[in-house]
Amino acid sequence: MAVELRFGLVAALAEELGSLRERAARTRVVGGLELFEVALEGASVLAATSGIGKVAAARAATVLAREGAADGLLGVGTCGGLRKHLVPGTLVHCSTAVQTDLAVRAGREVESDRRLRDAWQAAVPGELGWFLTADRPVLSLWRRLRLARAFAGSCVADMETAAVAAVARASGVPWAGLRAVTDPATGLGAVSFKLHFPSQAGRAADTVPDLVRQLQRASPK
């Protein structure tokens, strides 16, 4: 008999839960956080809207880990592209999450779980890149260029992923992240975000059933 997988999913905003929110069988509140219980074939997903920023995301991830998300914490939502080829609509898988505004260097980078990451990429093709997490939105061209200069290859800006990664590492739980680009590496970040957020917000969350199916195919019978 196949063992049911148990995941926790963190999104900053309600729209970033995509269709999973409508699929929730029931909701409950733990520590003031509303949790959505979603039953998929072969997996259960406990999803939460954390609110914006690293503190809010860490709180949500901690609750989910304690509530039994033993097979993985998933960070989903949107992001800002920091390379010209990362145009709106691009899906980006996280290779490593970095707390870019943390002065202490030790421990601020956390690599995603290779098994989860590879399975998600196999199910949902996309770019692979660094997620640069800060407490302020990276909307100005100057800040985008300054961040991008410090990292090689594909990288995006977000406000939650590194917090989810840090909690997962501390809890001994694997993690992975997938986000859709809403704004490119230009000086029109705020305008592009408002334009593309409605269509891109839930795309990453909506791929979680595909991830589960891919994990089931890859599991030994």
Q: Can you describe what's shown?
A:
This protein is an alpha/beta fold and 221 residues long. It has one domain (5-218): Nucleoside phosphorylase domain (Rossmann fold, 3-Layer(aba) Sandwich), CATH 3.40.50.1580. Helix content is 32%, strand content 32%. It is built from seven helices and ten strands. It has helices at 20-23, 54-66, 114-123, 141-149, 161-171, 189-200, 208-218; strands at residues 5-11, 24-30, 33-40, 43-49, 72-81, 91-99, 109-111, 127-133, 155-158, 175-183. The protein has a five-stranded mixed β-barrel with strand order 5-9-8-6-10, surrounded by five helices. α2 (54-66) runs parallel beside α5 (161-171) and α3 packs across α7. The radius of gyration is 16 Å and the shape is globular. 49% of the residues are buried.
